[in-house]
Design brief:
about 160 residues, alpha+beta, Lipocalin, about 40% strand
Length: about 160
């Protein structure tokens, strides 16, 4: 019996001693989100999301409304300075519904390393756009979200998918 205990103890010690931390290869440089946002963008898809239906578990929660209005007329341009910081923007709506009250001005982000929203400013007027996903930026797609509220409660959300030109 003691021999079995010694053998189990030896196996246990050997298994602990043989464990080594795995070495992982470097994953590369971190993505500069602000620089990825900079450029010219054309709208390719608009999805309307019914937040009330999502909350209540209804089957029809979202709808692709890209072809309902001439959304594809909408274009964004986010420019940066020499250091890659946000500087100016322009929004060309054409015949598309507006996604912001502004058509030009300056833009900033709430956090340079991990932004969640883009602030558009012209004089005293400011609009905010929510960033949908960082992963899509690597594929040349910018996802912007806007909420419509009624009495402070979000009733509809719009997800705008832009493709880099």
């Amino acid at each position: 019996m003691k021999r079995i205990q010694y053998i189990l103890f030896a196996i246990c010690i050997l298994s602990i001693w043989s464990c080594k931390p795995e070495e992982f290869a470097p994953i590369g440089e971190p993505q500069n989100i602000v620089k990825s946002i900079q450029g010219n963008w054309g709208l390719t898809k608009v999805t309307q999301i019914d937040q009330d239906a999502s909350t209540k578990g209804f089957p029809y929660k979202q709808l692709d409304i890209t072809s309902v209005y001439p959304y594809t007329d909408l274009a964004l341009s986010f420019l940066g300075d020499a250091q890659g910081n946000p500087s100016t923007f322009t929004i060309t709506s054409g015949n598309a519904p507006k996604i912001a009250d502004l058509t030009s001005g300056n833009w900033t982000v709430d956090d340079v390393k991990a932004p969640t929203s883009i602030s558009l400013t012209n004089g005293t007027l400011t609009n905010s756009l929510s960033i949908g996903s960082y992963v899509s930026l690597k594929a040349g797609k910018l996802i912007i979200k806007r909420d419509k509220k009624l009495n402070g409660k979000v009733i509809l959300s719009y997800q705008y998918e832009f493709t880099k030109k």
